């Protein structure tokens, strides 16, 4: 029962059409699934990833059209990293961000890796990190039909930063329950705040890290557009997921129990600082119900929603994702 790394991360957008344009046309990700939020089928759930949305490459968005802006604070998923092949790719991306007027910072160093922080049109906090020295979990394969040259393309999710009021509570969950190990630390960019701790799981490396920041100078985050809803971790298969369910229930965490998302199977629970964690299986995958060459082009619904297709489509604003 070893978690293999980051599986996916789900965030909030208020504008599905602009979100699609930014993440496919500027960031060059592939839309691998256009579906609905299974807990509220009146809104879209968009999945972006590598050539076929391999586990560890999926960045997803719930569209909540009336969502207010995110108010950053503690007990949150405060930064999402995306992996690129090497340091030279960051030079390409800095120029690309300048060309597309994307809000970005300079290339810097973070835990020995080159990094480039930027924000999307809703203020989503993102960082590109170089895999030049990565010797852990392998990245995905950028889509060959992306507008970004394949050698510079995004290869998946990198380290995810959590910002909390009480780090020890989250440390206990990561290390004593979820099997993460402490890898190191680096100074906070905010004067007077504790070092940021680095934890890893599985093979380690860029695709298997959590960076934990403790802050005593921030309010509680209020989630909105530009914020992150939850982070999911990779479980090898369904049998192992059921063992995790038993383990999480045994320690007394309020949890969802087994959830069938069709493209993967899941368990949800909140760690003591209130951040929503998901454990998700690597399969079956996004080509289960669509041809690999046409992923994301039409509205995909799991079989248990197919009988409601007409009613569901009537509530959704049309979103043209054909290429």
Automatic annotation (TrEMBL):
<dbReference type="InterPro" id="IPR037523">
    <property type="entry name" value="VOC_core"/>
</dbReference>
<dbReference type="InterPro" id="IPR052537">
    <property type="entry name" value="Extradiol_RC_dioxygenase"/>
</dbReference>
<protein>
    <submittedName>
        <fullName>Ring-cleaving dioxygenase</fullName>
    </submittedName>
</protein>
<dbReference type="GO" id="GO:0051213">
    <property type="term" value="F:dioxygenase activity"/>
</dbReference>
<keyword id="KW-0560">Oxidoreductase</keyword>
<dbReference type="InterPro" id="IPR029068">
    <property type="entry name" value="Glyas_Bleomycin-R_OHBP_Dase"/>
</dbReference>
<keyword id="KW-0223">Dioxygenase</keyword>
<dbReference type="Pfam" id="PF00903">
    <property type="entry name" value="Glyoxalase"/>
</dbReference>
<dbReference type="InterPro" id="IPR004360">
    <property type="entry name" value="Glyas_Fos-R_dOase_dom"/>
</dbReference>
<feature type="domain" description="VOC">
    <location>
        <begin position="156"/>
        <end position="282"/>
    </location>
</feature>
<feature type="domain" description="VOC">
    <location>
        <begin position="5"/>
        <end position="131"/>
    </location>
</feature>
């Amino acid at each position: 029962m070893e978690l293999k790394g980051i599986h996916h991360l789900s965030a909030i957008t208020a504008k599905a059409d602009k979100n699609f344009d930014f993440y496919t046309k500027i960031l060059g990700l592939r839309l691998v699934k256009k579906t609905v939020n299974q807990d509220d089928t009146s809104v879209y759930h968009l999945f972006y990833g590598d050539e076929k949305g391999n586990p560890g490459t999926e960045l997803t968005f719930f569209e909540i059209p009336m969502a207010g802006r995110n108010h950053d604070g503690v007990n949150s998923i405060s930064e999402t990293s995306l992996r690129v092949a090497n340091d030279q790719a960051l030079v390409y991306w800095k120029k690309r961000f300048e060309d597309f007027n994307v809000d970005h910072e300079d290339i810097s160093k973070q835990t020995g890796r080159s990094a480039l922080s930027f924000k999307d049109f809703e203020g989503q906090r993102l960082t590109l990190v170089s895999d030049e020295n990565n010797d852990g979990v392998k990245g995905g394969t950028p889509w060959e039909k992306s507008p970004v040259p394949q050698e510079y393309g995004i290869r998946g999710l990198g380290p995810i930063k959590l910002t909390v009021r009480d780090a020890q509570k989250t440390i206990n969950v990561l290390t004593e329950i979820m099997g993460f190990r402490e890898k190191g630390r680096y100074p906070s960019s905010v004067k007077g705040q504790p070092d940021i701790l680095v934890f890893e799981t599985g093979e380690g490396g860029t695709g298997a890290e959590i960076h934990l920041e403790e802050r005593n100078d921030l309010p509680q985050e209020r989630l909105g557009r530009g914020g992150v809803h939850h982070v999911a971790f990779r479980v090898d298969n369904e049998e192992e997921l059921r063992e995790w369910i038993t383990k999480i229930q045994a320690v007394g965490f309020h949890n969802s129990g087994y959830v069938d998302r069709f493209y993967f199977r899941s368990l949800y629970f909140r760690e003591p600082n209130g951040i929503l964690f998901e454990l998700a299986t690597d399969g079956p995958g996004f080509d289960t119900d669509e041809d690999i060459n046409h992923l994301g082009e039409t509205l995909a619904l799991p079989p248990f929603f197919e009988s409601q297709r007409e009613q569901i489509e009537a509530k959704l604003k049309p979103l043209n994702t054909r290429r």
